[in-house]
Amino acid sequence: MDNKYDAVIVGGGVLGTFHAYHALELGLKVCLVEKDPYPKGATTQNFGQVVPSGMNTKWQKFGRESLHIYKEIQSKFDISMRQNGTVYLASNEEEEQLLVELRAINSSNDYESKMLTQQECLKKFPGLRKDYVVAGLFFPQEVTVEPRVMIHKLQEYLVIQKGLDIKFDFPVISCESDREGVSVRNTKNEEVFGKKVIICNGTDFKNLYPETFAASDLEVSKLQMMQTKPQENYELKGSILTGWSIRRYEAFHECPSFARIKENEPKESLQKKWGVHILFKQAADGSVILGDSHQYADAAKIEDLGYDLDMDIDNFMIEEAKKIVDLPTYQIQKRWYGMYSQCKNSDIFQKTIDDNIHIITGIGGKGMTGSAGFSKKNIASIFNTKKINL
């Protein structure tokens, strides 16, 4: 039957799509089902940064594998990837010390990075303010993608060149196991069958497994971002991460000085209240994406985060950004927020039901960077292929 597959993937975001990619790479017959007419969740609402440098040792391995996968696909099919590297900019001696320590960690892990002096930073990144930056750490292998383009291009590539079946506008309401596999049914009573079903649809799995959802430690993060109007005669290459990223990203938690520096931070500030860390990324049209903030609520109480944009947060981020980079214009053409799920006490949520149904979600802010590499190992585990070393 045409509607029988080795794997049915529920959820067309980056995590689900890369699970489909790796299942196809194993020679399996795969169907990806997505509840909306096109993907429009967290995968399309982020910066589009692929930055293994910001991850802890475990996830950096997945992130580095992701880099290889992105580059391999880009060599065959344009998915909007650009390799301009990532830089972390220190604004004081404490942050510079963390950069020195992170460089040592990455050197021992054989991951390329380079310390930049203040003058090298100023020369490499136009508009960077001399009164902000004291040093930088540059990762040349890292890439960016256009998040509202990449997922569509990736799925197009998988359909055209790998034989993926995709069914959009397919809201799943039940997964029922029997001896033959799993029946996946939608609101129109349409049905597909999979030997294995992999559910990567964020917190939407609560509609399928409410008790499992209620017992989870999932929370939701709401992030506000903005996009300037195109900058005239201005180029800002790569991902620009600043002092508050240094103080937030998991990679720096492994630095010897991190605990002491965090302890000395002010206990109360607007940065902490709103979870702000300032990032810059220039989009393909010359505009610059700015952000972001982080506000949290239990996944079961997502409505506590509200459905509005807080202009006080946006205005605060713009004023902080102006202290770092003098852009030709800070006129904003777009504002939005994204939401992603993560776990409070673990790095990802995984639950197996009836042996053949696997829930994988709650990857948090690691999705764009970590999904490709993590999915490779996870698909190998689900289908009992030989262990893949990353």
From TrEMBL:
- Per UniProt, what is one Pfam family of this protein? DAO
The record lists the membrane-crossing segments as: none
What residues does the FAD dependent oxidoreductase domain cover? 6-375
Q: Which cofactor does it need?
A: FAD
Per the record, the domain of life is Bacteria
Fetch the Gene3D superfamilies from UniProt: D-Amino Acid Oxidase, subunit A, domain 2, FAD/NAD(P)-binding domain
Q: What InterPro entries has UniProt attached to this entry?
A: FAD-dep_OxRdtase (IPR006076), FAD-dependent_OxRdtase_HpnW (IPR017741), FAD/NAD-bd_sf (IPR036188)
UniProt KW keywords: Flavoprotein, Oxidoreductase
Where along the sequence do coiled-coil regions lie?
none
Similarity section: Belongs to the DadA oxidoreductase family.
Query: NCBIfam families of this UniProt entry?
Result: HpnW_proposed
What is the protein name given in its UniProt record? Answer: TIGR03364 family FAD-dependent oxidoreductase
